[in-house]
Amino acid sequence: MNPSFFIQNIPIYGDLILSPMAGFSDIPFRLICREFGMSMSYTEVVSMDGVLWKNPKTFKILDFRPVERPVTFQILGNDEDKITEACRIIEPLGPDIIDVNMGCSVSDIAGKGAGAGLLKDTSKIGRIFSKLTKVLRVPVTGKIRLGWDNKSRNYLEVARILEDNGASLIAVHGRTRSQFFFGKADWDAIAEVKQAVKIPVIGNGDVKCVEDIERIKRHTGCDGVMIGRAAIGHPWIFQYKDRNHVSFHEKIELIKRHLSNMLEYYGQDVGVILFRKHVIKYIMGMHNATELRPYLVKCTSSAEILDLIASHIDRIQKHEAA
Ligand SMILES: Cc1cc2nc3c(=O)[nH]c(=O)nc-3n(C[C@H](O)[C@H](O)[C@H](O)COP(=O)(O)O)c2cc1C
Q1: Residue-range domain boundaries for the chain
Q2: Which of 15, 115, 118, 284 could form a disulfide with 224 if both were Cys (CB 3.0 to 4.6 A apart)?
Q3: Does the active-site annotation cover 33?
Q4: d(CA 66, CA 84)
């Protein structure tokens, strides 16, 4: 199999990537996605302050398994010296790539000039990338939005600055900061970025089914496709399978396995709480899912989740027999 593209000299086999998603794209979920065909891993984002203050939670987020390689650590920050110092601290933990988040839309973050807030200060973006690419041995990449708002869609300027300052890849979420996660993602803009730079471009936004994967590739010419919300509860998208092509049995088996991996990784209490938001996505579209959902989101033990699922299977079987 030939690599789909390279990040500097790192070959990437396959072109589907799970979007970094705080609260979702952790080790247990990434390992499942990887097994199903995801081509590389991005960690959930960490803040430069969390790294500099040596916050144990921050370092737990950067945990990864060798089988996930190539692994990208994602960081956000609003100060070139501090973000550089934070990257120097995390580079020895062994990532293959470090990515700078320029897309986070959360007011507390973007409002302080980090995440999508960086898009308002393009010269700072240049300084950050110029420093990071000099100081770090691993390739440095960037994940951007199209701009702050509709009046300031500066994605082409940002893309060129990234390339000129040594970035090895750009992932483009085709929305502005003020769109948050709403409205249609603009794939024309992603296509413009692809035309404007020579480094690989990853297309992201509104990839909801297998057909969308092919459509965004054709429409934008992007080198890879990043899938976020559509992969939650449906990692089979990395096997090029839509929800209606996965059997009820397969879904139940994966729910049990994912839950068990969460318990093993986080311990019983935290594992169950964190799994609740996954399980309600796994059951989407199943018979009686809307009735089951309010009970699942209140479960406090794995036994409760498994009992609910078992009674659901029972009901489905009776429904099918009737
Ligand atoms: C719950 C959630 C958490 C997210 N966390 C991150 C993050 O940590 N880093 C990042 O670059 N983007 C983050 N994003 C944005 C996604 O990576 C992606 O760009 C966005 O969801 C659009 O892709 P989609 O339409 O396929 O969901 C997050 C999105 C969601 C829904």
Answers
A1: 5-243, 247-321
A2: 15
A3: no
A4: 25
Strands in 16-18's sheet, in edge-to-edge order, are 16-18, 224-227, 201-204, 170-173, 140-144, 97-102, 71-76, 41-47
Q: Confirm or reject: Cβ of 180 under 6 Å from ligand 1.
A: no
Residue-averaged pLDDT of the chain: 96
Q: Whose CA is nearest to atom 6 of ligand 1?
A: 21
Q: How confident is the model over 93-127, as pLDDT tens digits?
A: 999 999 999 999 999 999 999 999 999 999 999 99
Nearest-CA neighbor of 157 among 141, 170, 138, 175?
A: 170
Indicate if ligand 1 lies below 6 Å from the C-beta of 21.
yes
* Range 5-243: architecture per CATH: Alpha-Beta Barrel (3.20)
Distance 22 CA to ligand 1 centre (A): 7
CATH topology of domain 247-321: 1.10.1200
Q: Tell the residue nearest (CA) to atom 13 of ligand 1.
A: 21
For residues 151 and 112, the answer to whether their CB atoms sit within 8 Å is no
Quick one: three-class SS letters along 86-106?
HHHHHHHHCCCEEEEEECCCC
Residue nearest to atom 5 of ligand 1 (CA): 21
**Distance of alpha carbon 95 from alpha carbon 64, whole angstroms:** 9
User: In this model, does residue 52 exceed pLDDT 90?
Assistant: yes
